[in-house]
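Exercise 7. Predict the joint structure of the components listed below.
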Amino acid sequence: MASSARRSGYETLPGAAGLRAWARRHAFSLLSSLGSLTRQPIASSMTVIVLAVALTLPTALHVTIDNVERIGQGWERLDTLSVFLEPEVEAVEAQRLASRLTSWPEIAAVDPISPDEGLHELSGQLNLGDLGDQITDNPLPWVLEITPETEVVVATLASRLEREAGIDLVIVDLQWLERLDAILAVIQQLVSLLAALFAVGVAFIIANTIRMDIQNRREEIEVMALVGATAAFIRRPFLYTGLWYGLLGGFLAWLLVRIGLVVLATPIARLSGSYHTHFQLYPPAPEITALLILGSGLFGILGSWLVVGQHLRRINP
Amino acid sequence: MISFEHVAKRYPGGIQALSDVNFALDRGELAFLTGHSGAGKSTLLRLIALLERPSRGQVLFEGRNVGKLARRHIPYLRRRIGVIFQDHRLLSDKRVFDNVALPLMIAGLSYGEIRRRVRAALDKVGLLDKEKMFPPMLSGGEQQRVGIARAIITKPPLILADEPTGNLDPDMSAELMRYFLQLNELGVTVLIASHDLDLIRQLGQRVLVLKGGEMVDDLPARQTLAGESHGK
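Solution:
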């Protein structure tokens, strides 16, 4: 018969309190969860593949956006500003302004174009032959072609130049770049929405898988409850299973994206070669990879928590 | 040890399993609970192990009102009660050893300790040579003994058995019942639900009779017959 000390309360376990018992119970749950994954390899791998495909979509989209943004940054640097001086500005004044602008820290180079050169260039572009011979009164002003330093915000520089005396007009073809940025921002927002949606999807896919797992192991759960397993003890292997599903799904999604990048590398190289540029694809950043895999694991735990809790309330009235 | 005071249990759907049950079982006692099927035997046992909560009245176990026990304390109550089922409730995909070890793994004992105690329990029910087998490979009587080994492994003060001899032939049943008597002699309180009236009569222990959800009879033990059955 039990000693009176043992009857002090239902909270005390027979001879197994403390950290080591806790560790043993965790080890049991961990092994048990791995066992349930390997016992049904086909069902488990199908779940992992479904998760991976679901997670690959937002991840791949994010990587695409990331890479397009990198190209965009490269293009922005190719831009020069065309500074049109006021018509009455003469050659000496124009040259002086040009040399003054060269001393600005934002500006890398200034290339003055005289009205004659401009007319020559224009007639060449428009295929009008030697226009300069027929036009005696050249309507073109002096133009300064300005190349900004790499890290300069072009729009700010443009508005500063416009305030300078003698400058009539600054033309920067930034509009298409701004549009590209706006489009990218929209898609980036879409990626965030998709990521949230797919995270919920992951939780429910895993919840559903765990639910089936619970159906298959209903007897085991009931027996464990009968012989005094706590809710936490019964829940734990399923939480581990959810975690494994999430981690594996996230990892496989990352792998799929990396494989996709390798497959795309050659055609991308050929394409950028035809533009005489060197462009390479960047893989997802480490923090994105971590977010993908750990986040997926976390939602796996969440998903299995939902279903196991629901089931436990039926066993323990 | 156990005390029922005006206990009623009504299942959802309006089935009245127990209507007004009163009885007490002292520490160290052994009693049979009998009655026709549907009389409420299983329900009564389920109320003690808190597999169900009573609709009315009080179920006391070791002085505590079991019906009011918080959900998180249920597992610790169940660790003090060994339950044996007619259908054994063994896990068929786990070996005999692991089945018996389950309550100890739940308690978080070390493997060495578990191994020692499982082998001792299996030895007690005469199944030490079957520890590596899976339950479906065993006979009904052997499976029932595995169930008993699992129930006694934590040395609980109370053993509940729900139709433990239900699927067994008379010889096997008698042997199993003798085993419960032995346990009882070691000081364990035992309550056995059974409708095997011939066998119960032979053993001469206290008999509680349920009929239509009420306790209609409480027959005390007949010492002489009990002594005789021990001698067999």
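Discussion. The first helix of chain B runs from residue 41 to 48.
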